[in-house]
Amino acid sequence: MALTKRIIPCLDLKDGRVVKGVNFLGLRDAGDPVELAARYNEQGADEVVFLDITASKEARGIIIDVIERAADQLFLPLTVGGGIRSIADIREILRAGADKVSINTSAVQNPELISEGAVMFGSQCIVVAMDVRKNPEMRDGATPITMPDGAVVWYEVVIYGGSHPTGIDAVEWAKEAERRGAGEILLTSMETDGVKQGFDVAVTAAISDAVGIPVIASGGVGTLEHFYDGFLTGHADACLAASVFHFGEMTVKEVKEYLRDRGVAVRI
Question: What are the positions of the active site (predicted)?
């Protein structure tokens, strides 16, 4: 029996509220995170991701309160990311009621955090989030990825919300994250994020095929077909979206029914 594909709403949090913008700009309020998460729970979401985009130590108490409220009311797995820099941070988030933590910049800067977190809390708790950007100038040692137009490129890992290139090859970083014990990869292509033209299926497929752990496609959903492409062409194990759910363009139930009717195994 085929493993079911997951649909995951992502809630970006700022000062305890859900916000959404395009390319990290023009943020607008989208509601209370626990109320939205409860709605997605009713619609049949497989998981929910909370991403604390302000994530300073001063604001950590706000996200802890949100996690605790959500854990009390929800019956689906909750992943929390943003500003998690240490084992102590991971422990605090999990104790508040999260099932998994998502680490991104801190994992690149300190890969031992993946290893230590996996040993201490279990691989199933550690999600490595990757923001990647297409680089058309091939270099020795980079993993070549062929685009739909035939161009050959490689993808570079970027950190600090996409503002700092690292020179790290995305496919190799995904492999290292898996070797160090990550349980999942959450992959966002900077070019497609927020523009609603579909997932970057080229890099999603390349990373999905290179690792043995689940890959969550993120960044670019605008239509029901984009979810189908993420699974069929991108070989993703899960698809994540935000604004199309928050602003009522589609429901999780509608997405799953669309996928089911096209032969994709989903939990209805």
Answer: 12, 131
